[in-house]
Amino acid sequence: MRVLKPFDPWRSELCTCPRKYSLHPYTGCTHSCLYCYATSYVGRRISKPKLDFIKMLKKDIYEADPRIPVELSTSSDPYTPEEAVIGITRASLKLLKSRGFKVLITTKGTSFKYDQDLFDAVMVTITTLDDEISSKLEPNAPSPSERLEALSQVEKRKGVRIDPIIPKINDDLDDIRELLREARDCGAEHVVFSTYKAKPDNLRRMLNAFPELAELNFTERIGGYKYLERGLRYKLLKGAVEEALKLGMTASVCREGFPDLMRSSSCDGTHML
Questions:
Q1: The whole model's pTM is what?
Q2: I need a labelling partner for 82 at 20 to 30 A (CA). Which of 24, 182, 234, 236 fits?
């Protein structure tokens, strides 16, 4: 197939995602998050629709299995400001719906609320409630409060990704607890946690913005990423997962290698479909 492809994060030994398709209407991402891993292979640029994308998707939906869910999107956000003008995400969702595919949206945007007639569940990434930190980490993304407000307006099954958790930046457990409470009050039932995983380009950006991160030790190299020390990662994630469970949410971790912290029937939220 051409654009609707089986999700395979570089055959990562730590990926626990169930079988699904991944679809990216855009390449690049205007949100320009400092920690973005995708810039290591597409560069840092604004969102642009892929050439002949809808034409190729029209062919793919007849070759793909509609019993397998589709996620938009695992790297380039489907709801950057360009979508309001171009509408390629909405056009894609209409095609998928016409063939009966179940669709999970993953985004930092807010305009997904206008398309809720076309998807089945949504996961909104919110790394912090602190506007100052968010504006540095995710300079062109909507504010945390705007994302929560959009989430509250959706009458679909929904959750949040607190991803990445970064020591010294957004790892305070009291702050995570507050974020979880607000997300739950907006109707979020599932949460995915992940720690910051460094690549050379995103680490340079992070160090420029947050010099204090130079004190961190990335002791494991897994699948092209440098991971924080295993014990520190486990401590951060365990505390966060426990807080989510106390609030009645299901919880999981993403590509961390801690099976005991997988407290839901899917790590990514596809169980909500």
A1: 0.97
A2: 182
